[in-house]
Amino acid sequence: MINLHKQNYYGETKEFMVRKKKLRFIGDSRINARMRAIDSKFMSLYRNLPFTYFWLYRRAFGNLLSGSKTVTMLDLGCGDGTATNRLNLPSGFEITGVDIFKKYLEIAKTLRIYQKLNHSDIKKYNPRSKFDVVVASHVLEHLNKKDGLKFIRKLENIAQNRVIIATPIGQFPQEDIDKNKYQIHKSTWDVEEMKNLGYKVYAQGFRSLWGESNVIKEYGVLSYFFFLLSYLLSPLLVLRPEWGTYMICVKCLETN
C-alpha cells in the first residue's frame, strides 16, 4: 500500500504530489519533475543560504520565528500552500489560508500546515479578528493597481505585528496557469513604490540574468548555472534592489 502521508524533502506528502500532478505544471512536465527532484534535496540548504529567496523570506518574519508563544498567521492567496510549506515555520505558527481557486485549497489541505483553509475572494475576505502576521506571497501582481493598493491597506488593517508581501519587480507577464484565470498578472510594482508605502524591500534574483522568459523551460537543468551566477551577484542587490527579479517587502506595525 502506498503511504500517502510519507513526506519528501519539501515536507510534501504523497497525496500532495499526486493531486498537484493532476493539475499539471506550466511548461514541460518532465523538466519540472526533474527540477523539483533536485530542488527537494537542497531545500534545507536554500532556506539557510544567505541571499536565497527562502532565506530572505524567512528573515522577513524576524523575532516571530524565535518566540515561544503562538503566532497567528494569515496567508492571503495561499494557492496550493507550496511557498508557505517551504518556509518550514515553527510549530507554534497557527496558519489560516485563503484562496479563490478551490483546487489549490484541496492540494494545500494535504500539506497539514494550515489550521484553517477558506475558499474566498481575497478582496472580499474580512476576518473577525487580527493576525500577528499577514502574508501575501505573489498575490499583488494578480490585482489591478487600484485593487492592489486597497489590498495593501487591508493587509495592514488585519495585521498586528507585520505584513509581508512578495511580488515580482517591474514587468513580469504571466497568463493563466493550471486552468486558473486568477493567475494572470494585471499590475506591476517597483522597489521605490513599495518603499514609499513604508516597506523595507529585499530583492532576490538578478533580473538581467533571469529576464522575463521561462529559463527552466528553455535550459532545463542547465538553468542552475543561472542560479549560481545570480547567487554570486546577489550581494549587489542590497545596494541596488531595483536590479532584482523578485522583492520581499516587510512593514513592521509593532515593536516587541
TrEMBL record:
Residue stretches spanning the membrane: 221-239
Domain of life, per lineage: Bacteria
UniProt-listed InterPro entries: Methyltransf_12, SAM-dependent_MTases_sf
Residue ranges occupied by any Methyltransferase type domain in the UniProt entry: 74-153
Key words, A-Z: Membrane, Transmembrane, Transmembrane helix
Protein name: Methyltransferase type 12 domain-containing protein
Natural source organism: Candidatus Woesebacteria bacterium RIFCSPHIGHO2_01_FULL_44_21
